[in-house]
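Thread: quick sanity check before group meeting

JM: Hey all, I'm pulling together slides for Thursday and realized we never actually wrote out the predicted structure for the chain we discussed last week. Dropping the sequence here so it's in one place. If anyone has concerns about the input, flag it before I start.
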Amino acid sequence: MSANRDPRVFADPDRLDLQRDAGRIWASATATITAGGANIARMQLRLMIAAALDFLPEGARLLEHEIRWSAKGVMSQIKSLPVDFAGLTGGE
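JM (edit): ok, ran it. Output follows.
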């Protein structure tokens, strides 16, 4: 459960960091297809979040330190992904 979240390797291991150096990520899988699938899933998540952020008004930003995670067995999932709209009001 601590793979890729080792505080000896990553400065802030529990923070969602889409720019994290993938060369320092270590994971083990029983088959190549599993490892390949994980890499594809990470890329899809990165693209999905980037696309979603494109729809936010200018000045809005992701509150990375307030992201809430939920553990599901050996997996984790994002429970909330808060956004600061920087005082923006509707109608702009």
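AS: nice. The mean pLDDT is 74. The longest helix spans residues 32-54.
JM: adding both to the slides.
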